[in-house]
Structure formats: structure tokens, C-alpha cells
Amino acid sequence: MLAYAGERNESESLPDAGTGVAVLQEPAGDDAFLKLASEIRGELAAARGRTEEERQQYGDTLNRAVLGYEEDRRTMMAIIQDLLAKRRIHDLPSRGRTYDSMAEAIFAEVIGMNVLELILKSREGIEEIQVVGCDIFEVRGGIPMRSPHRMQSFKDLERIQQNLVLFNNDTLNPRKRWAEVMLRDGSRVTMTGFGFTAQPTLTIRFYTVKHYELATLCRPAFETIDEPMRELILCVIRSYFNMVVIGPTNSGKTNLIKAFIAEMPGHERIVTIESRYELMLKRDFPDKNVIEYEVNEDDPPHSSKQAFKLALRQSPKRICHAEVRDEDANVYVRACTRGHEGSVTTVHVNALEDVPDAITDMCMLDGRGMNPGRLVKRIAEFVTQVGFEMALVGGKRKIVRIAEYGWEQGEVALRDWVLYNSSAGTWSFPMRVSQRAAERMRRYDPSGYRRLTERGWLG
Q: 186, 262, 273, 431 — which has fewest CB within 10 A?
């Protein structure tokens, strides 16, 4: 069957509307469609192949199709077309009129994402798909808008949930009413069921497929930064300041971190530690010296602490930690203060001023006797040396603040290098770089130091 599907893949694309000539022998209603879908699902789920290797190959193909691999989706579509052709069924049921063919309607029901397939067909600009019960919202530019599409019933959403968890070593049932799976491009799907939330939910968050250099973020299409800021950020990266990025969900933190990494020398070893692969550095930077860890705090041998322990033995120059958490805050602080300069992380706080205290609180949960005052000072001076705040402004993701951390008169002090004025739509540069930071720039990036001096930010 797979060989036949491959032949069809080479000779034809997905079916167009109006190609069928036969009709359903049974009434073309919901019951007939669901019965047919159930039969097709059963046939697809049955192991295929004469040998164990062939059966394993088929299982992998089905799994990858559910996860969104285009070639495997075409293979499964060809198999569905063949199964329908053997039944002499081509016409669309009443519930499938929004699809181009019966095969597409069946595919969406038993392998795909039902009506969400229509959104995924033209997902340009979509950042999230949010489903609550029957309601669907599409997030573009950080703003959720109600979709013109809608689930017909809760059961439609629950079928999608079961399709997603079936081949991904996860469950969603009365004993465990939530699940998370990953799609092909690293997008994350979070699901909840009745009993945990009032209605079943599904959120698909699409992560960056492309990466952007800092120069790209200066362009009018983005306006995340301007040219003077680009020069400043380049000097910060080349001077190996430890950096922290804050901002609400969908404010562009991931894009910014990837833009930082794009500017780092390709030979430098970078280690990333994430709870889910989101940065996808090896995909977007295949020539960089990158090691990517995916950790699971519920599995001690593969926790973030263990990942840090191994990572520090792999000679990293920089560490990119997706988010500082309670479990690994102490390890990250030690890494930043013991030779791994130029590292970057994110912290969930409301303002840059809150970062050192937040990391200190996480470190104190370790249970070891530490002086919180000394720890805050150490973090401000060595772990969070330069902070970046992201925000969504007028539908665009912007850096709204860049500040240098310091310690003055017994407390954390921030020196604002850059501030964004939303009323004027421009950035200002209110304070000069400190003498300590300027000396670091002069030592590590002499050419950048000269350019910033010419702009009046140093000296």
C-alpha cells in the first residue's frame, strides 16, 4: 500500500474539488460520514507490511503524518484516496462541504485537525491557534481574533486531542486531563480536558520558522530596534555581557534571542537548555557549534540540574537558558559567574528591576544557607549585567528598554541606556554606559567601542 501511495505521490498532487463522479450509497449525513471515518481510521491504525521492518516504517509514517510532516501527510492522503476509491466514494458529505474533496474531509477527521486544517492551509502570519470548547481564535501580531471557523461540537475537539496524543507517547483521559505534544516544526500543542478546565481546550503555539539578524529587525516591517541600537547590542554581544530578556507572552523574546545568537561567532560552543525544543538553533544555524538539551523536571536523570552538570563538562562558551526556574536557578548563577560569560536567559517578571530579586528567591528555595543580600548583589553584577525588555506596541514587537545592572548604596541600580517613547514612536538614549561597562567594551570589542564613543554613549 505504501509503495502504491508513493507512486500516486509522484504522479498527482492532492485532489481538487469536483473530481469525483460517484456518490455515497448511504445518505450523505453526519452519521454516514462518521461511520465511514471510523472505518477508515480502523484500517489506517492496522499494522501494514509483510515484515516487522515494513510495519515499523508504516507506523512511523502514520506518526509523522499526525505530527505534520508534509511528505508523510501526502502518503497518508494517497492511502485514504485509495481506500475511498475501492469503496467508490467520492462525493462530499454535508459536514464536509468546506473541504475540496471527500479524501480531505476524511483526512482532517482521522489524521488531521478537523476544521483546523482549513486554518493551517494558510497559516502565514498565524502565531497561535486557540480553541476553547467550540470557539476558535487566531492570533496574529500578538492579538487574538475570533476565527470564521468553528467546531461543531466538543466531540470534534476531543477527537483532535486523541489524534494528537495517540502516537506521541502521551495520554489524555479521566486520570490525566492534560497533555502536551510537539508538531513538526517545534510548535507546541497544549491540551486540557473536562474536569481540569470547564471546557476542553487546545492551544497551538507556532514557533519561529525563520531567524532574523539584528539588521533585519531594524527594517520597517519589524521596527524592533533602530540602527544605533543595533550597534549597541552588537557591542554588548561581542563584549560577553551576561544578558536577560523579559516581556509578556508573544512579545518577541524568542526572536530576539535568536537574533543575538545569529551575531555570535559560529565556532563558539553554545549550549541551550529548554523544557521544550523551541529555539531550534541547529535547524536554523546548522554551521554553529550548538548542543541543545530538552529537560524534564519530572524525570530526575533528565532534569535541568543534570543537563547543566553535563553541559558544563562540554566546554560551552555561552549558555542559552530558555527560562530560569526554581530548580536550576543556582546552577545558572554559578555558570554565569564561573567563566561562561555572554550567556542569555529569560525571566518572568514585570520589570527589569525585579529580575535580581526574582532569581534570588528561586535560589533560596534550594534550602542551603545563603545570604540573600550578597546573592542579589552577585546576580546584579555578574548574572544579569544587561537587561532587555520586550513589548508589543502597535502590533509590532519592540525593545522598549535596555538597561545596565549595577549595585549602588547597598541596592540594585539600573542605568537606562535605551527607552522607547510610545507617544513619539522613537527611542531615546538617556544615560551613558558606566565606566566599568565601557572598559569591558574597549577590551573585547575595540571597533564597537570607538563607534559608541563617536555617538557620545561612552566617555
A: 431
Q: Could you tell me the CATH number of the domain that includes residue 191? A: 3.30.450.90
Cβ(186)–Cβ(280) under 8 Å?
yes
Which residues are within 8 A (CB) of 152 and not within 5 positions of it... i.e. 6 or more apart?
95, 115, 134
Do the beta carbons of residue 433 and residue 457 sit within 8 Å? yes
Q: Residue 34 above 60 pLDDT?
A: yes
User: Exposed, middle or buried: residue 264 (CB in 10 Å: 0-12, 13-18, 19+)?
Assistant: buried
Q: Do residue 39 and residue 124 come from a single domain? A: no
Q: Report pLDDT digits (tens) over 365-409.
A: 876 667 888 999 999 999 999 999 999 998 899 999 999 999 998
How many Cα atoms sit within 13 Å of 121 on the Cβ side? 12
Between 282 and 380, whose confidence is greater? 380
From CA 142, how far away is CA 139, in angstroms rounded? Answer: 6
3-state secondary structure at position 290: strand
Which of 112, 137, 169 is at the close of a domain?
112
Q: Is the pTM of this model over 0.70?
A: yes
How would you label 202-234 residue by residue, b for 16+ Cβ within 10 Å and e otherwise? bbbbbbbeebbebebbbeeebebbbebbbbbbb
- Domain range enclosing 176: 115-206
- Nearest Cα neighbor of 151 from 119, 125, 122 is 119
Largest CA distance in the chain: 84
C-alpha cell at 426: 522613537
Least confident of 45-54, 86-95, 214-223, 380-389: 86-95
Q: How far is CA 110 from the centre of its chain?
A: 26
